[in-house]
Amino acid sequence: MIDFIKKLAREAGEILLEGYGISQKEISHKGLIDLVTASDLKSEEFLTQEIKSRYPDDLVLAEERSYQIRDGNRIWIIDPLDGTTNFAHGFPFFAVSIALEISSIINFGVVYNPYFKEMFWAEKGKGAFLNDQPIHVSATSILRESLLATGFPYDRWEKGEFYIKEYQAFMQRSQGVRRAGSASIDLCYLAAGRFDGFFERKLKPWDTAAGSLIIDESGGSISQFSGSKWDCRDNSIIASNGLIHEQMIKVLTELKHNREGKIG
After folding, report:
1. Positive/negative CA dihedral, 124, 125, 126, 128
2. Phi and psi at residue 131, in whole multiples of 5°?
3. What is the predicted pLDDT for the residue at 34?
4. How far apart are CA 256 and CA 114, in angstroms?
5. How far apart are CA 117 and CA 10, in angstroms?
6. Model-level pTM greater than 0.85?
7. Running DSSP on this structure, what letter comes out for residue 169?
8. Which domains, ranges and CATH numbers included, belong to the chain?
């Protein structure tokens, strides 16, 4: 199965590269700043057709088109192009993300950046890998010595001040906070020890499903902002190397209390 998924990701990545750097005349807007390109649609059509031809009874949860989603034992969770805005502007930080959830447990996950030929992948219980090399989270144990990653939701024009407060809180307590525009890659960079922590609101299952398994298998930790158990359908995510996890939760908890105190 993992070989099949890696092959899918690699071939979908080739579809993206064919459209990369070409004027995207077919760019459309799902929202004010939420884009979809012709390459998104071509990649998703390829992935869904390949999955359905091999596993016709499986369900598919994808970003760009609505599929009938119901309770099912096997659900493919795919993002045909994570980092669409980057892709449309020629910034090479984008990926194909594919996960297979079986009985509510993510068993396989692949995230592939075709530009850099980096394929992150994991199979539950068998470790995490970058191409064919095992990866593991970092050993940084102090938040102020950490490098973090984040992203801003698509309603940032309306709620930018709210999100900037969270960004500022971590910026003032770490060595830096990077915002590169692809959550799936951010999670994989964390799994590979390139980042020490990650936080973001309002992500979707296709943004995080594959990356979350890769983090689990690399020794990392994931929770909601509150510290509660996390699921890829939840509204918030903190991911870390595990060593700074409670420190990150504490920052957000204190910020929440300060906000509530001002409102009160």
Report:
1. positive
2. 55, -115
3. 42
4. 39
5. 9
6. yes
7. H
8. 2-134 (3.30.540.10), 143-263 (3.40.190.80)
